């Protein structure tokens, strides 16, 4: 088979390059926006997803994980007695103030967990031993937050809400959605470094005992605790993500710029494919006279769109991966799972095909007399 | 046996009902049998190209019927017509209309592909056709690297692709010098008569008239009947005296 699609495409080199640049632009923009979006999404519920709890008990009507409110730890004692609860634990996430070694304050999010079970603790420690946070006023922070915290070193003493504390280690990848630095310590230490008082907790984590179902235990807990909300891990995780993505408009903003990439890409590709169709219109007319059906000619145009999208996507993705690498070096982690790559490829193909629709419309209306003009 | 091509009372009106209405073809009756070499002459704007498009199923008559081997093609749908063109008709154009990104052999091969000949077979047939028109040596050249005569040879090979019984040509020599024009038409006649094909050619070019088995005259949308000797004669003289042939313009 002689591929008129391919031969025509590669003959108009300049136009081909312009179409590729349009596709690359869209691919890079969409990939990065989607990668940032995904990273934010993961951050929004990262601690929930890493804790080994089946159920989260929270104050009423929380908007999301990072905005937890304190309630009486009587809830913790009540929960322990509920049938089907294997264990329950107090867990803390609350704002506090960090005093930089050089002076000045920075707001932080204190995370207080049980060092014996490590539920809700950071999952990657690059220096020090997490277990040691059980000792008085020992904390860990994330390596990525060091600059914001005033560049302290491991072993340094700092102050959190007026309490002296010592940095005993560093974590990696523990980033909050709000970008507020996490400060990890034991629940007991956290209470002292926070604005809460003894006898309060922010969350209660529950593990369901073997032989019981999660929804069952959830319902029973809710009956016993009418003044609290009881979520499964997935529910609470989704709720936190939804809050950031939908309620705050952060998701919308990212979506909008990804969409902009798509629109601009479609316009550029559509323009070039259309210009090329117009230029080759007499050839298409000739094909029709020879006996090609409209469908045969659409196929040529769609094939061109497909060639464009495969080459545009692969080169665009190489550029996008380069940019992501630079962003990671700059401290902004961008997620790029393979499922997303496939999704973006599908979007690229759809973009290229939809941008050939005007050309296809043009083909249906070719004047047969065209081919007899010299 | 029905005639190869038959037009019964065919009229084609452009922009019907508007102030710019043109009756391009006016109540034309015509029967042509296989193996003929017919040249259609007539002044510019007389409706020759329109008639050719009607014969080729590229245009529908406003009234009347166009039949190909007894099948009324003027009634066929847009979906059925490509099939008829693929099987029955080869076109040659004044402007060659080669695909500029394809080499000579690829041009013929692509045409064969449209006509449902594929793969190795198409490539082989394309080579044979180019050999017939004497272009073997320049087979792998792009159209831009071929002379006008060579391009029209490729076009002749393309028109013969798929062995259609009918070849329709619109002023195939108008863009060529007279010697080349005659050579091409000689070649076309030889190749078509060898296989008993009908060639229906529109031409202003009075230097090729001797190739014709039959010369038709058209004036103002009407085909002058064979009986109307006087009118035909007058028109012939008029055309013969206009040397060099007028470059046909497209009246908008
Ligand atoms: N698409 C169209 N719309 C309106 N009028 C048209 C159209 N095509 C042709 N005509 C008119 O129909 C008439 C016949 O045109 P046609 O092209 O068939 O003539 P022709 O004999 O081929 O002329 P030429 O020798 O210049 O090629 C002319 O008056 C022309 O202006
Ligand atoms: Mg004409």
Question: What is the topological layout?
Answer:
The complex is a heterodimer of chains A (374) and B (252).
Chain A: H1 4-11, H2 13-44, H3 46-50, E1 55-59, E2 71-72, H4 74-81, E3 85-99, E4 105-113, E5 125-127, E6 138-142, E7 157-160, E8 163-171, E9 182-186, H5 187-193, E10 200-201, E11 203-208, H6 214-224, E12 228-232, H7 233-247, H8 250-279, H9 281-290, H10 294-329, H11 338-354, H12 357-364
Parallel strand pairs in A: 4-9, 6-8
Antiparallel strand pairs in A: 1-11, 1-12, 2-10, 3-4, 3-7, 3-11, 5-8, 6-9, 7-8
Chain B: E1 5-14, E2 22-32, E3 37-41, H1 48-55, E4 63-68, E5 71-72, H2 81-88, E6 89-92, H3 104-114, H4 119-132, H5 148-160, E7 166-170, H6 178-194, E8 198-202, E9 214-219, E10 222-223, H7 229-240
Parallel strand pairs in B: 3-8, 3-9, 6-7, 7-8
Antiparallel strand pairs in B: 1-2, 1-4, 4-5, 9-10
Helix pairs in contact in B: 3-4, 3-5, 4-5, 5-6
Radius of gyration of chain A: 29 Å
Q: What composes the largest sheet of chain A?
A: 6 strands, mixed, barrel
Number of strands of chain A: 12
Overall mean pLDDT of chain B stands at 89
In whole angstroms, the N-to-C terminal distance of chain B is 40 Å
Helix content of chain A: 40-55%
What would your notes on this structure say?
The complex is a heterodimer of chains A (374) and B (252). Chain A has 374 residues and is α+β, with helices and mostly antiparallel strands. Chain A is built from twelve helices and twelve strands. Chain A has two domains: 2-42 and 249-372, no CATH class; 61-226, no CATH class. Chain A has a six-stranded mixed β-barrel. Chain A is elongated and about 95 Å long. Chain B is an alpha/beta fold and 252 residues long. Chain B has helices at residues 48-55, 81-88, 104-114, 119-132, 148-160, 178-194, 229-240; strands spanning 5-14, 22-32, 37-41, 63-68, 71-72, 89-92, 166-170, 198-202, 214-219, 222-223. The longest helix of chain B has 17 residues, at 178-194. Classes of the chains: A alpha+beta (374), B alpha/beta (252). Chains A and B meet through α1 and α9 of A and α1, α2 and α3 of B. The complex binds adenosine-5'-triphosphate (ATP) and magnesium ion (MG).
């Amino acid at each position: 088979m002689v591929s008129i699609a391919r031969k025509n495409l590669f003959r108009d080199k300049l136009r081909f390059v312009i179409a590729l640049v349009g596709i690359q632009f869209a691919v890079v923009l969409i990939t990065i926006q989607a990668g940032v979006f995904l990273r934010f999404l993961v951050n929004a519920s990262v601690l929930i997803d890493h804790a080994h709890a089946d159920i989260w008990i929270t104050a009423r009507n929380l908007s999301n994980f990072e905005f937890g409110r304190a309630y009486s730890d009587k809830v913790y004692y009540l929960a322990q007695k509920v049938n089907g609860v294997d264990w329950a634990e107090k867990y803390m996430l609350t704002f506090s103030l960090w005093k930089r070694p050089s002076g000045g304050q920075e707001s932080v999010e204190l995370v207080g967990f049980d060092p014996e079970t490590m539920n809700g603790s950071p999952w990657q420690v690059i220096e020090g031993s997490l277990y040691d946070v059980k000792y008085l006023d020992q904390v860990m922070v994330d390596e990525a937050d060091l600059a914001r915290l005033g560049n302290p070193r491991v072993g340094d003493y700092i102050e959190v809400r007026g309490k002296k504390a010592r940095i005993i280690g560093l974590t990696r990848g523990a980033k909050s959605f709000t970008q507020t630095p996490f400060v990890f310590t034991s629940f007991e230490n956290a209470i002292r470094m926070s604005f809460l008082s003894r006898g309060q907790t922010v969350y209660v984590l529950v593990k369901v005992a073997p032989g019981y179902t999660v929804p069952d235990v959830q319902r029973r807990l809710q009956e016993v605790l009418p003044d609290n909300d009881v979520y499964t891990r997935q529910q609470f995780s989704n709720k936190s993500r939804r809050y950031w993505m939908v309620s705050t408009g952060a998701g919308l903003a990212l979506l909008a710029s990804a969409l902009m990439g798509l629109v601009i890409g479609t316009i550029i590709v559509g323009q070039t494919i259309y210009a090329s169709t117009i230029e080759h219109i007499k050839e298409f007319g000739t094909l029709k006279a020879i006996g090609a059906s409209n469908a045969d000619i659409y196929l040529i145009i769609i094939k061109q769109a497909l060639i464009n999208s495969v080459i545009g996507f692969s080169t665009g993705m190489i550029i996008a991966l380069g940019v992501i690498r630079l962003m990671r070096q700059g401290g902004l982690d961008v997620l790029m799972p393979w499922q997303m790559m496939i999704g973006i490829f599908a979007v690229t193909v759809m973009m290229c095909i939809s941008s050939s629709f005007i050309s296809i419309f043009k083909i249906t209306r070719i004047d047969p007399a065209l081919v007899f003009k010299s | 046996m029905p005639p190869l091509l038959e037009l019964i009372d065919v009229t084609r009106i452009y922009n019907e009902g508007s102030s710019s209405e043109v009756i391009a073809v006016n109540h034309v009756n015509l029967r042509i049998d296989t193996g003929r070499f017919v040249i259609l002459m007539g002044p510019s704007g007389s409706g020759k190209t329109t008639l050719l498009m009607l014969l080729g199923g590229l245009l529908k008559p406003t009234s009347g019927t166009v039949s190909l081997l007894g099948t009324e093609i003027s009634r066929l749908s847009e979906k059925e017509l490509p099939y008829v063109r693929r099987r029955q008709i080869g076109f040659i154009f004044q402007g060659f209309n080669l695909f500029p990104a394809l080499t000579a052999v690829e041009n013929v091969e692509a045409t064969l592909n449209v006509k449902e000949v594929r793969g190795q077979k198409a490539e082989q047939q394309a080579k044979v056709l180019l050999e017939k028109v004497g272009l073997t040596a320049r087979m792998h050249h792009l159209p831009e690297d071929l002379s006008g005569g060579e391009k029209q040879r490729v076009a002749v090979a393309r028109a013969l692709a798929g062995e259609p019984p009918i070849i329709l040509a619109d002023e195939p020599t108008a863009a060529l010098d007279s010697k080349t024009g005659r050579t091409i038409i000689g070649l076309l006649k030889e190749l078509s008569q060898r296989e008993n094909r009908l060639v229906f050619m529109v031409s202003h070019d009075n230097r090729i008239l001797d190739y014709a088995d039959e010369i038709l005259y058209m004036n103002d949308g009407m085909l002058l009947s064979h009986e109307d000797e006087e009118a035909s004669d007058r028109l012939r003289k008029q055309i013969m005296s206009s040397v060099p042939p007028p470059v046909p313009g497209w009246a908008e």
